[in-house]
DNA sequence: GGAATAGTGTCTGTTAGACACTATCTA
DNA sequence: TAGATAGTGTCTAACAGACACTATTCC
């Protein structure tokens, strides 16, 4: 009676298509941007969209997402995590398409963009100046991704993935402020970082208009993944 | 060259199957349980599995998950959220199957189970006494769900979804302890709840062996969703 | 009264948040 | 020296965590 995995005949049912879409975040001139591609063909020709594509039968979802990312930007070995799966019927006018969305954080200054055959253009947009009329439900996906990035920033070291290997505290602080949309207290922010033991002094200084800033790097053990760091409300818990 | 949504011919590629699997949590005698079904047919005949099934072409993912939940337990209108999408090739020996996993929290005392045609049996298992050799990658999905439930418990009111409408503070505390696997201080826990203004005194008392406990209910506005409540580290932030 | 459970009062160390201060560079 | 930016010292209110206490029931 009920259709379940138990009595399924692989050829019996119509199947949806499955894509991965990747929201790619990067900093440009200290502002948070996302990478978008402009579509060439129906549906939503000329509209901007999040890069993505179909999942091959022999690759995992994450492999598919990394492949798309590399095709679009040439980057690999970056931080990436699964965001959410969007599957409302009708979100794609062609056929039922279920999209597994990922988001990636990249160090933009190290990257050059490449326009693929399938798009007119590739472009970075500041997250608060997105183009109008995005393709499909990509506006929703993007909002979802930005919300997630903000909330993860509050208790992880994710933001570090956006920075160059060596950076100053003022720069890190500006990034937190940019993403959170909120001013932070310098003294408290620095103290928090010092106490967290996440950073390592490189000894180098970076000249600017005023006093030069010390350059730091992340301690090796904590560079990857999302080691707990709360920019407020330090947490002691040892578990997890 | 690249395959993207832009030049896709809906009939051109082989498509994966898409299922939803639902991890159903409930309390039984104060312990956290998950609902599992015992499979009848190949593959993994006789093995225990998370209830799930194929997504119909005209229903959303969440609708599919709710349908599966209702078929398996008869419940509806419960808390449910998308967990993660598992899609490694080879996770199902029949064909490529991508599974969108959900988790649901139900008030078990209100429910009677019904065994579907496709399973030998349906059963609640305590989360720390799961059967061996679960079907597919369901062990992984289950661990994922338990971790997520634990971590969400620390900053949301999710646990309340497991409780009856009216309950005592000692009972709520025991549930937190059961799920977190950690003893909490009574005075601090009660104080936290009082200050949070989440609860409403029903005026009723519940008799037990010692002094009777006051019964509370959640304030209407906060019953649904996951209003912020940290069982430790109260947070003031007004945003979100 | 004693056992069992429910519920409260209060001290202490930690720390987030505020803000005034000092330091080091360039022009 | 002034302007600009980097970085520090320190006070205070809030609160998590600890723990001893009181309250109300049943036997």
General description of the model:
Chains A, B: Pfam families: NUDIX (PF00293), WHD_NrtR (PF21906). Chains A, B: One of its GO terms (molecular function) is hydrolase activity. Chains A, B: Keywords: Hydrolase. The structure is a homodimer of 240-residue chains. With 240 residues, chain A is of the alpha+beta class. In chain A, the strands form two sheets. In chain A, strands 1, 2, 3, 4, 5, 6 and 7 form a seven-stranded mixed β-sheet that branches. Chain A has a three-stranded antiparallel β-sheet with strand order 8-10-9. The N and C termini of chain A lie far apart (43 Å). The first copy, chain A, is elongated, with a radius of gyration of 21 Å. Chain A is built from four helices and ten strands. In chain A, strand 9 and strand 10 form a beta hairpin. The interface between A and B is large, with 52 and 52 residues. Chain A binds a DNA duplex (27 and 27 nucleotides) through helix 4.
């Amino acid at each position: 009676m009920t259709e379940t995995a138990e009595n399924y005949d692989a050829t019996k049912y119509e199947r949806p298509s499955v894509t991965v879409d990747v929201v790619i975040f990067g900093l440009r001139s200290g502002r948070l941007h996302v990478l978008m591609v402009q579509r060439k063909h129906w549906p939503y020709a000329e509209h901007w969209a999040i890069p993505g594509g179909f999942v091959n039968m022999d690759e995992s979802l994450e492999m598919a997402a990394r492949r798309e990312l590399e095709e679009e930007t040439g980057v690999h070995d970056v931080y990436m995590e699964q965001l959410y799966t969007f599957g409302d019927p009708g979100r794609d006018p062609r056929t039922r398409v279920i999209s597994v969305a990922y988001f990636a954080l990249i160090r933009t200054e190290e990257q050059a963009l490449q326009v693929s055959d399938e798009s007119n253009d590739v472009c970075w947009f500041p997250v608060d100046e997105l183009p109008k009329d995005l393709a499909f439900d990509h506006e929703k996906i993007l909002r979802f991704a930005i919300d997630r990035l903000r909330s993860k920033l509050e208790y992880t070291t994710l933001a570090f993935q956006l920075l160059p290997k060596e950076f100053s505290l003022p720069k890190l602080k500006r990034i937190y402020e940019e993403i959170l949309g909120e001013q932070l207290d310098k003294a408290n922010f620095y103290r928090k970082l010092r106490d967290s033991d996440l950073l390592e002094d490189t000894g180098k200084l970076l000249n600017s208009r005023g006093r030069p800033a010390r350059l730091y790097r992340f301690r090796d053990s904590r560079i990857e993944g999302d080691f707990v760091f709360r920019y407020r409300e330090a947490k002691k818990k040892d578990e997890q």
